[in-house]
Amino acid sequence: xxxxxxxxxxxxxxxxxxxxxxxxxxxxxxxxxxxxxxxxxxxxxxxxxxxxxxxxxxxxxxxxxxxxxxxxxxxxxxxxxxxxxxxxxxxxxxxxxxxxxxxxxxxxxxxxxxxxxxxxxxxxxxxxxxxxxxxxxxxxxxxxxxxxxxxxxxxxxxxxxxxxxxxxxxxxxxxxxxxxxxxxxxxxxxxxxxxxxxxxxxxxxxxxxxxxxxxxxxxxxxxxxxxxxxxxxxxxxxxxxxxxxxxxxxxxxxxxxxxxxxxxxxxxxxxxxxxxxxxxxxxxxxxxxxxxxxxxxxxxxxxxxxxxxxxxxxxxxxxxxxxxxxxxxxxxxxxxxxxxxxxxxxxxxxxxxxxxxxxxxxxxxxxxxxxxxxxxxxxxxxxxxxxxxxxxxxxxxxxxxxxxxxxxxxxxxxxxxxxxxxxxxxxxxxx
Amino acid sequence: xxxxxxxxxxxxxxxxxxxxxxxxxxxxxxxxxxxxxxxxxxxxxxxxxxxxxxxxxxxxxxxxxxxxxxxxxxxxxxxxxxxxxxxxxxxxxxxxxxxxxxxxxxxxxxxxxxxxxxxxxxxxxxxxxxxxxxxxxxxxxxxxxxxxxxxxxxxxxxxxxxxxxxxxxxxxxxxxxxxxxxxxxxxxxxxxxxxxxxxxxxxxxxxxxxxxxxxxxxxxxxxxxxxxxxxxxxxxxxxxxxxxxxxxxxxxxxxxxxxxxxxxxxxxxxxxxxxxxxxxxxxxxxxxxxxxxxxxxxxxxx
Lengths: 431, 302
What we know:
The structure holds two protein chains of two kinds.
Chain A: H1 2-5, H2 7-28, E1 32-39, H3 42-58, E2 62-69, H4 74-83, E3 90-93, H5 98-103, H6 121-126, E4 128-129, E5 132-133, E6 136-137, E7 143-148, H7 149-154, H8 166-179, H9 197-208, H10 227-242, H11 249-252, H12 262-265, E8 270-274, H13 278-283, E9 289-293, E10 305-306, E11 311-314, H14 321-333, H15 335-341, H16 351-359, H17 366-380, E12 384-385, H18 394-409, H19 415-430
Helix pairs in contact in A: 3-15, 9-18, 10-19, 15-16, 18-19
Chain B: H1 2-47, E1 50-52, E2 57-59, H2 63-69, H3 72-103, H4 110-123, H5 127-137, H6 142-149, H7 164-174, H8 177-188, H9 192-200, H10 205-233, H11 237-243, H12 254-264, H13 268-296
Antiparallel strand pairs in B: 1-2
């Protein structure tokens, strides 16, 4: 009845409630607010949120505000936020974004603010540029060849074993195609997929197949590859396509990490990706997957990079860089964090955390153990230093590289022509 | 005299009060258009003459525009967009008109049919539909599974350079609803006496469609035509989600290319120049349509 008689009273009451609640929030608001952003899958979200909760319990004066999403659109959103001076205090990045982020003046130099003594020094160097540390590695991550063992045994094929060469890999792929009567391919054609994986394989390919000794395909100042290198890479994949070792371009180019993954759908038996994504593949299938380090060159050359899988950086616009750095230190060194994060970002970055996790090994899933095992194998190899590359080539790895791969794949260009035109276009970008 | 004057004053006072109220209620919209449309609009004019990533910028005159003229990728994106507009808009309008003809009469359950057919347009530009399309036309999607039943081996429609654009065109045509609704209301406004007269004179259904319906509907057709053309030039979501512009830029619509240039390559100035060029192209096409209207649009008052 009161509602009918005096709507004004109701309105005043609502206002009072609103005002009083906002006051009570205001009173508590002495906490230091830190925004933190990352991308990933559900597993990573859950684990990270747990870690954040734990940190807030230990540090009641800190209020962490999570901003998380999938990878699609993350980079664009981050760059826009950095440009607007409104980036989260702590954000996830990869070293390849450093040049663009620095050009936008978006990174805080945190040298000396975070204890990195527990990290592998090559990874610390990879997180730095021009002698300044702009972030801390969150995971030791390596590229691996995932293989679907269940599918292989159905086809009566021996799974691939380490060590193996590029030639062994190709023959195995062809065997898959033949024994499945052309229904299943060995792997997707990475030279045509627009997710950056093709270019990452190109980096490995340079050391482990083209036998490059110096930094490849670039250091932080300049590109170090030429037309001939591109030609060799594209030619190898053309060979794989022509022998049906990899799926045709049209099928491969839609491959992704989730719903359209050719590995999950059983269209291919092998797939290259980072160890950090293994759980994601395995969670989507009942088949038994396992990981192998990438193939070796004829003289046993490998090209695994000490490339930080994911990096936490502190935004230049952050009002609390010290508190942000303190959180990152806790995140990357404390055993408590290790226990909740497990392998949600690949293998933990510091020895103290890895040990803490292994001590607690009953909480480790089968996936986790597999990932740790394969990363240990990779770490036994001689790691190459990873570079972010010179600035101004943002489009190269993600777009141009697979685009020319597709031109060859769809039969519009020869390998030589594509390599020549791509090199030309890349050189134009640099000018 | 006196009372008249005070009356006038009173009304003036009342008017200004009303005006204030009007502005208060309009404020959300006004602020929106000033801050989120007009300001970026002006800003982009300035940026189109600069090399800028929003942080640092330098004036480079017309260089962005000159560069556009021989930017292979931009020209490709314009051609792709044109192809899309030229094929999808007439198809969509024809389809909308066809369905509108079927649904203009008060048959049983017409409300349900109309809503059902309008639904795709409501949810059409959304990410969910685009994701659904990916599943429908994917290599092992529904379409290929159905084809399989008939023994036809389908192809990866979305990732084949010769079919990718048509997958997006089918999606656009499927969203004919809003044009359909406008057509239905237009059809209902045509006086039935004209049809009756035609019938008495022995005109066939086809004749009355071409001699009565089309001319009487032509202003509505013009309206839909212009609206759809402008909208189609700005196609973005579908390509962004389904094809990401690929394969080999066959679905790289201009707006998608602008988005990539601005947010992936961080070349805001160049991207602004592109959007102004696109606006110019849209203006030309809209202008052409209006010019041609003289020859085919019939207004009753003439």
